[in-house]
Fold each of these.
Amino acid sequence: MELGYLYLMGTLGCYTMLGILHKMADTRHCRPVVINFLLFGWSAMFAYALLARQMGPAPAIPWEVWRIAVPSAACAALAVLTFQIGIRHGSLATSWLMLSLSYGIPTLISLWVFGERLNPRKGFALVAILVAMLLVWKDKTLQERGR
Amino acid sequence: MWFRLMLVAMTANGFALLGAKVLAEAGLGVRYSSHYLAAWYGCGFLLALAMSARRVSRPYLRETVIGAGMALMSFLGQACLVGAVSNGAPGYVVYPVIAGATIFLVALAGRLIFRERVGPYGIAGIGCGIAAVVILSLP
């Protein structure tokens, strides 16, 4: 097997484990606010270690990069926090699905902001996202009625 | 409650993903991707700390270990993704497989590890969602 495909399996394993750890944090009664800042804190350490290895100690980060990173990171911190609070009230499977459906948002914004064209394939995928959300919402409503 | 929280998480995560797109559109993606990642996580840490300012206290050991595990998986996942693309696995295979298979594997883990039950509508939603993200991640 090619090395690239072994890395692909590694990616799948890591991201699946990440989902499992989100649920594990909930079942072990970890506080979402604490998990949020620890996740970013540890990740920042790993990322700075990698950057320092590539660029030497105290690497300078250009202003333009900060300007893009700050709003994006604010959204990510909000996303992790609400996901970690929300997973307490729903299943891991459907919660992870909802988070994964966020792939549709950059596509939608690219259409408006960057003037990308909507081809039939992208249009179908965006409609499928809406259908998936409706089905998950219906499933959750039925589960709550059944309790 | 759950659906509203997940809608917020989904929307916020979508805007967070947009940062990499803006970086690429600004022509900074190749040269400054590691810088961006470090700035992104660093800002995320400070903002997450600010969000928890009123309720912050010393983390418990289990929170520290699980938080470190999550960070490691996120970071290694990203590194493996770069490794996959730069070691012969074509992008048109890598991105759709990751997008679709991760949803499936996490759903499977939910069933096997946490004994979760997902109804027929939920299973149909997962199938539909996998199809959507696989199609979106095709080049």
Amino acid sequence: MPDISVTIGMQQAWLLPAMPVVAFLIISFFRKLLPREGDFLAIIGMLGILLVTLFIIIDFQGFFHDGEFHPGEANVYAFDWVRISADNFLFLIEFSTYIDAISVVMLIAISIVGLMVAIYSMGYMQGEDRYGWYFAVLSLFVAAMLLLVTSGSLVWMYLAWEGVGLASYLLIGHYWERQSAAEAAKKAFITTRIGDVGLLIGIILLWKATGSFDIQTIIAAATSGQIGETYLTIAMLALFAGAVGKSAQFPLHVWLPDAMEGPTPASALIHAATMVVAGVYLIARFSPVYEVVLVARDVILYTGLLTAFLAATMGLVTSDIKRVLAFSTISQLGFMFVALGVGAVGAAMFHVLTHAFFKALLFLGSGSVIHATGRQEVEYLGGLRHKQPVTAATFIIGSLALAGIPIFAGFWSKDEILHAVSGYASPFVYIVLAGTALLTAIYTTRLVLLTFFGSPRDRSAFDHAHESPSSMTGPLLLLGLLATVSGFFVFDAVGELFGFSGGIGYLVYLHHPHAFHIDWAFASIATVSSLTGVIIGWVYWHGGAERAIKARTWSPDLHALLVNRYYLDELYQGIVNKVVLGLAGIVAWFDKKIINETGVDGGAQFIGYFGYRLKFLQTGKIPNYALGIATGILVLSVMVLARA
Amino acid sequence: MTDIFGQTLNLNYVLLLPEIVLLIFSMLVIGIDAFKRQLNISGNVPVGLALAGLVVALTLSILQVNMDEDFARLIQVDSFTSFFRILFIAITLVLIVGSHEYIEKSVSHVGEFYGLLLLATVGAMLMASARELLTAYLAIELLSFSLYIAVSLARSDRRSGEASLKYVLLGGVASASLLYGLSMIYGVTGATQYHEISAVLSAGDTGLTTPLLLGLVLIIVGLGFKASAVPFHMWTPDAYEGAPIPVTAFLSATSKAATIALFLRWFGGPLLPIASDWQFILSGVAVATMVVGNLVALQQVNIKRLLAYSSIGQMGYMLMAIVAVGSGFGSDATSAVLVHLAGYIITNLLVFISVTHFFNQTGQEEITSFKGLAQSNPYLALMITAGLFSLAGMPLLVGFFTKFILFQAVVSAGHLGLVTVAVVASTVSLYYYLMVVRQMYLYEPEDGTEQWRLSLTGYVTTLALFVSLVVFGLWGTPLYAAADAAAAGMF
């Protein structure tokens, strides 16, 4: 391996967040002065990230022996951020980076998709207001996301966790003139905050128990039984609450469909490929601890399972092309949590990787459609394959990957998850998950048919449509390639080609990595089920989708239930209106009358009155001042002598 | 080593080089200014010389950072001394760079002014480094006399002369009290060397309780005057209001810090063995100072008087920490005081230099004259706001970090009651700091107020101070490490 890894390697992982932070600062302060509002700085930042990631991977292989990751000092870089020590007290927060296989998978996804999205955005956002600001926030997001996955300290990880939330909020609300965008941004921020509070509580609990914020120290303490089981279970469930919020799992999934108000490339990066898998990363990072608290792991399993199924059913009836993809993201995240829930960290991270590529591809493809037609409801699309051949072809590749059709990336990773589930949990879990995979194939086929096939339903939009510029189709083609081939990484031979003595199971540290072999019987069941889904989709939605429209009459209630997303948004809004606002009214009254008017105002008047009286001691006359000193001497002398 | 009067003394003059350099340059500045017409030299020479002297002295002080040696048993050059040397020189440097336009414009006798600032800096440095009572006393007087004159140098402001007169007369009273107190200590212990006093006092009962206690009271009164402790604070608002603004800044930064240095040297050194005798006096004084300073500040309409009372309040927090020094956690409490002092000085300099530039532009110093500054000069409004928020102890700014360390140290030493008062007092302080912020942001500027900019040096100094405000607020470890090392030198 080249020697450059000596100078840039895992120790220099802090460079990753540093580069986009610099880009963010320069663009946000000087975008008015820079050519093209500084978008090239964001691109340069992303290129730098990709380069450093490559060096880190090269360095990383040195710690990889016999299919296992052997952490050494070299993968840690640290300095004291806050150190307060005293005779009886030590409070230490380090800034540290820690790189292992899990972070490497995240780094690959973030760096490639980040670069693709940045390039794509140059075409998509061209000529819009706040063009530079968009790139600034995009850089801020990437910085926070990279800090999140490289931080060795829970405090910095939490800061980054909130940082990606902030960037997400800013990007969802990028078109804040639109009421719905402003509302969606608020909803996303508040909903994820609910989970974040859990995460914070978890961090504090773990710190109380171990006295450290260092993730590896905490894991070591927890797995060696230094923390009581109940306590640890509560702490790990609190961490999972953070993951539920960020990764849009039931019951906090409601923000993600609305988050589609943001610019589409931002959705591709944040709400498909990277930020929403932060929760998966968090659980994977703490997977050795979840091995110890199996109750918490079961909670993860069933949360993921329920989410995967519910989201897939909602995806069946949604008309907004981006929201269908949003529901599919929620559903796929559910798959990942199911994998984590059965302890298959490798399968989960593998799905993170392939999902990042094919889902980013689908989002960017939908962006290309929206860019060309100005429409995003499938009722107004159709037939676009004639106008946008590249977009259509790559979108179909992404869909095949999502549906789990063999050779495409999603097939391999989904197969790994199903395989892990079949070997671990009850058949019920396997059946529901396989059924969800079938649903996935159906709604994906529906989306492709309604968008690119059939006859156009909005003539004027269709007539104005055109293929997108090469800055947009380029990333589509590259991601299309990755969505096709990234699944091959599962083969040992491919892994060896990249310098790892094994496939993804070896890349991601597992206690008992299994050598990959295709279980033909298993794979054929999965394939048949996926193909069945595609056929069902074709039957119902091809042409004018007559069968599908007729199908609504089977059970109008069921259809309404799905369209209204199980009425969960209404339920939450009701809770907010009745319970939260009602309670807030009482608190507000107490605050206004008792605290403010009596306590604070009264106290302030009291204090102000004293200040007013004391002011008159200050006469401006020297003898009075000297008298003050003399009185002081006298009083103090009497005090000390009386005491003696 | 040289033998003088039968004593072996270390006369290594290298140890005093920073002070010597500053003295030479102060004489040069004053001398050249006196003959500037005859010599036909440009007006920039005095300020250039003053800055050159400061830079040389700063370099020398930095080179001596790791020293631990005494000069003739009068001066101790240790890490504590180095901390304050660097701090004091840096304060004067920043003040001169940040407000030289004001000095050229609104100060009479510019050359003497610079010379006096350098002399006062030397006095402050010696206060921190003395290891003997009389040397310390002379250092106080060097600082005080320079400032008595400097206060009177505001051109065409009649309050300046009045302020100077009040300051010098009351300063005389305090000085007499201090000297009397020192003589009592000498009478009881028979020594002026700190370590000898400490040895005598820790040896046990001297049999002379009354003079010892009276001596303590008189010393606390004398130092309390310099520190603006209540009830010896009354000169402060008047002197602050009348003095040229850079001198006010100097009074609130160097003069206060030097007094605190002396408090630490004395009460953490020779007087530590009788801590139980002075702790309750200082507690009372600290509480009175925190309460009165912060309450009266609420009623002020002049920004300089407001800052005067605010600095009185701030001194209360530091005196509270001196009490903690006596409780057996000397090193921790000392380093906490040093951290807070450094943070307080960075913040105070930012506020004062910003106010100086405001005065330069508008010629006004009423709080209401800051009306609408957020529109006429948003940069300066942000600087002042950041400074005031840091003084109030808002998170993310250095004031929060240092106050947290300070309060934490006092709590660890077991003085929860004092900290309770301090926390309430800082809550009150937020109100009067916000009075200024409210004027800047919530009111429209007077009609016809135009947008204006600072000078280049104004931008450079305020921005540097602002950046340190934020950086140390987010990452206080370097500050903490420096203070820890300095405190370790003393114990």
